[in-house]
Amino acid sequence: MKLMKTTLLLILTLGIFSLTSCKKDNPQLGDPPSDADATFSYAPSAANPNIIDFTAPNGNMVNIWDFGNGLKGEGANVQGIYPNAGTYTVTLTVFNQGGSNSTSQEIVIDQTDLSLLDNPYYNALTGGADGAGFKTWYIDSNETAHFGVGPDPVSPLGDVPEWWSAGPNDKPGCGLYDDRYTFHLDAFKFDMATNGDVYIHNSFESAFPGSFQNLGDFTAPYEDQLGEQWSVVEEDGEATLTVSNNSFIGFYTGVRSYRILSITDSTMSLQYDHEPASEGLHWYLKLRAE
């Protein structure tokens, strides 16, 4: 009996050892990109020496560009636009499953070409090169439907806040109407002046210390976000306005990119999403220039 127990214990021990030794190692994600993977080339475009063509060596990696002029891009082949003469530091960051790597190069733009700033969206947002070069906007609280929400994707009614829209001055004292947004043409700078607080969706309460419930959602203390950047990307007949880092426009829903539904010298209508997108919401804002 003692011999049988010893034999059985040995079999169990060997079995456990066998299972342990056959256990698969954790999958490897691979090596991060090398310096060579992040090295890029560039050349003036055929159309204009102030428009630079940039090329990354690896189209199978994610390529993120910082053009050094306040604008960013993504892709293996991109263009940077430089209206003003000067020296710019361009950075390419590449990503794969193993990590990321970055390299930078300086490019020199010899001549200023302000015609590159003659864009309808730039002109409307900032007043253009022939104007003041900057413009300040605010939520137009006197306008019906200056703030609202609808479905994502939109219904047959189109890009309208069909589920709820604010009447004139519907959200007083919540931190929405006294915020100011200034777009500068020079270096595409963006200033968000909060006057001390902002209005946020209730799902972001924990991300804003000191927030408190106010008129259905939350008001939160928030500092001015000055010296940020803005950009407008036109694609497939749509224009998307994006602001950088911790700045945003209007009621905060977790995003910093806004589709421009319409814009004139004095009015602007925006549509934007909710993060996460699974919420199925589109938000709407109407702004007016000061």
Plain-language structure description:
The chain contains three helices and 20 strands. With 290 residues, it is mainly beta. It has two domains: 35-113, Sandwich (Immunoglobulin-like); 120-289, Lipocalin, CATH 2.40.128. It has an eight-stranded antiparallel β-barrel with strand order 8-11-12-16-17-18-19-20. The N and C termini lie far apart (96 Å). Residues 1-24 have low confidence and may be disordered.
What structural keywords apply?
mainly beta; disordered N terminus; single chain; four-stranded antiparallel beta sheet; 290 residues; Immunoglobulin-like; 2 domains; 3 helices; Lipocalin
Give the helix/strand layout.
Layout: H1 2-22, H2 35-38, E1 41-44, E2 51-55, E3 62-66, E4 72-74, E5 77-81, E6 86-96, E7 99-109, H3 120-126, E8 134-139, E9 147-151, E10 164-165, E11 180-184, E12 189-193, E13 197-200, E14 212-214, E15 217-221, E16 225-235, E17 238-243, E18 257-263, E19 267-273, E20 281-289
CATH topology of the largest domain: Lipocalin
- Major β-sheet strand ordering: 8-11-12-16-17-18-19-20
State the CATH architecture of the largest domain: Beta Barrel
Tell how many strands the DSSP assignment holds. 20
The H-and-E topology, N to C, reads as HHEEEEEEEHEEEEEEEEEEEEE
Query: How would a textbook summarize the main sheet?
Result: 8 strands, antiparallel, barrel
Can you give the mean pLDDT? 90
* SS content category: mainly beta
Helix proportion: 10-25%
Q: List the uncertain runs.
A: 1-24
> Which overall shape is indicated by the principal axes computed on the Cα atoms?
globular
Oligomer: single chain
Highest-level CATH class of the largest domain: Mainly Beta
Number of domains: 2
Tally of individual helices: 3
Radius of gyration: 26 Å
